[in-house]
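Q: Given only this backbone (525 positions), what sequence would you predict?
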């Protein structure tokens, strides 16, 4: 896609009033494919959007005071979304969820929020109790992977054991039975805290396991990675994941938020016909997910906006958005929130931010927005400025296992603890950090030695630190939004990472400047 300056961005220009032929609105490289029937009468000469408030329209967005109790309604029986403040386009909200099997109560989800990824229901080297109860982490939501849990141990077993909360060993559960914390029990740990779960649908594995999968209209078939395949046509050990199967697995898992199965294509693929097919199939599969959802009164099903990098008028992102708008407004689907998918797969940062900006300008302002697979701290700051609320990524935990700690300061904001410079450094990873390693004075030199000798304690400590860093980042962003000072926060964060050549650092990348300017955050010169 051709790059353009903010002044050339379609979202910044007055929209054409004349109705254009739909074939003129598609990007030049997109094959002419019939639109889904429900989109045949859509006016694609106008940008797709619905339920928009200030700053996207003149209608003020209703605010809800902090601490307000949730009120679940018929059109959203499992999620209550409170918006507390705006700072530019950045939002401070609270998402209230219904408790699931294994939970005595759910936990309010403050946004912006980063969700650590526990692929098989846990984080490597870190107990759920540590993640939830350690004050420096205090994570209110964890992500699980439907595909991997379906492969091992099987979601039927998870369901039999009371859902993933109980299977993980929630502090409020004992052998699958619910127990209130005993106030008379003396403990040296922080009191038990509930936490929420979000599961992806298995769609991402169409990209990450593309060589092991086959995609048809029925669904996606995966080879079982734990079985040896001698015949490429042998289907006896294949896992067929249809939309109905994905929802059944997620109902079994018992997550508070579940994802619709989408047809995911790598953002750097150049097969336009495949993107068109995937975009339209994502809408059809969403309908099948809705029909199969057996727990709509307690579990929240989010659709995922696909469409590649095409944000042209009438392009694939617009078609997907129009399809969801039709389902929400015309067909009356209960859609508690929306996810933005198909990114963070190697596309240019300029393409990345423009797609995020485009989707945030289109999606309803009274529903949470989840940007999937994004976890670099700089990306969180930029995308929060553009209007996103929820994020997930393996980056903080995976990089920790390689001995790399996240720290404030110059880009890329990392500290390589295996580096020779750390061998005799008596300081903590980060001054003022509340993670176990930093608060207990475990030095960089000590961690350097543990990592060099492959001691698993090192990976655990650095993982704790990196999650603490991410939790601190989202809390600081939220607090700055509540004070209506997010622009100053974002400017300070970016200037710390990119102080400029005069200060011996890197210049701020153009994509960061352009994205923040589109969000109304002009960096100080």
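A: Predicted residues:
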């Amino acid at each position: 896609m051709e790059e353009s300056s903010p002044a050339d961005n379609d979202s910044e220009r007055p929209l054409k009033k004349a109705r254009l032929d739909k074939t003129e609105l598609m990007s030049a490289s997109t094959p002419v494919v019939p639109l889904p029937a429900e989109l045949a009468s859509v006016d694609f000469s106008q940008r797709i959007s619905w339920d928009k408030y200030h700053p996207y329209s003149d209608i003020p967005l209703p605010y809800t005071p902090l601490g307000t109790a949730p009120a679940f309604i018929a059109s959203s029986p499992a999620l209550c979304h409170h918006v507390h403040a705006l700072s530019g386009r950045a939002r401070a909200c609270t998402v209230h969820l219904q408790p699931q099997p294994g939970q005595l109560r759910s936990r309010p989800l403050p946004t912006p929020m980063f969700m650590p990824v526990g692929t098989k229901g846990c984080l490597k080297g870190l107990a759920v109790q540590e993640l939830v109860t350690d004050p420096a982490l205090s994570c209110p939501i964890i992500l699980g992977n439907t595909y991997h849990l379906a492969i091992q141990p099987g979601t039927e077993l998870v369901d039999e054991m009371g859902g993933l909360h109980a299977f993980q060993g929630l502090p409020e559960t004992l052998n699958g039975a619910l127990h209130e914390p005993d106030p008379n029990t003396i403990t040296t740990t922080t009191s038990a805290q509930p936490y929420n779960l979000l599961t992806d649908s298995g769609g991402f594995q169409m990209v990450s396991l593309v060589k092991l999968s086959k995609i048809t209209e029925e669904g996606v078939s995966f080879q079982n990675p734990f079985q040896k395949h001698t015949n490429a046509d042998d289907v006896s050990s294949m896992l067929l994941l249809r939309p109905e199967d994905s929802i059944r697995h997620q109902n079994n898992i018992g997550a508070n938020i579940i994802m619709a199965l989408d047809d995911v294509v790598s953002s750097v693929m150049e097969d336009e016909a495949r993107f068109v097919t995937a975009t339209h199939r994502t809408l059809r599969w969403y309908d099948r997910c809705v029909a199969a959802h057996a727990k709509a009164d307690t579990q929240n099903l989010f659709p995922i906006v696909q469409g590649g990098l095409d944000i042209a008028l009438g392009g694939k992102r617009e078609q997907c958005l129009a399809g969801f708008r039709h389902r929400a407004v015309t067909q009356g689907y209960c859609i508690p929130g929306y996810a933005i998918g198909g990114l963070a797969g190697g596309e240019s940062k300029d393409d990345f931010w423009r797609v995020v900006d485009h989707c945030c300008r289109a999606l309803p302002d009274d529903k949470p927005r989840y940007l999937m697979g994004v976890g670099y701290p700089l990306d969180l700051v930029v995308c929060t400025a553009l209007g996103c609320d929820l994020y997930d990524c393996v980056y903080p935990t995976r990089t920790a296992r390689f001995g790399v700690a996240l720290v404030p300061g110059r880009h890329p904001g990392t500290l390589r603890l295996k580096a020779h410079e750390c061998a005799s450094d008596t300081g903590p990873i980060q001054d003022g950090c509340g993670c176990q390693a930093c608060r207990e004075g475990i030095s960089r030199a000590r961690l350097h030695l543990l990592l060099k000798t492959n001691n698993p304690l090192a990976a655990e400590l650095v993982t704790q630190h990196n999650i603490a860093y991410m939790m601190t980042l989202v809390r600081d962003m939220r607090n700055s939004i509540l004070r209506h000072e997010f622009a100053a926060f974002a400017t300070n964060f970016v200037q710390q990472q990119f102080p400029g050549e005069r200060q011996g650092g890197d210049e701020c990348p153009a994509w960061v400047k352009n994205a923040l300017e589109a969000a109304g955050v002009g960096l100080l010169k």
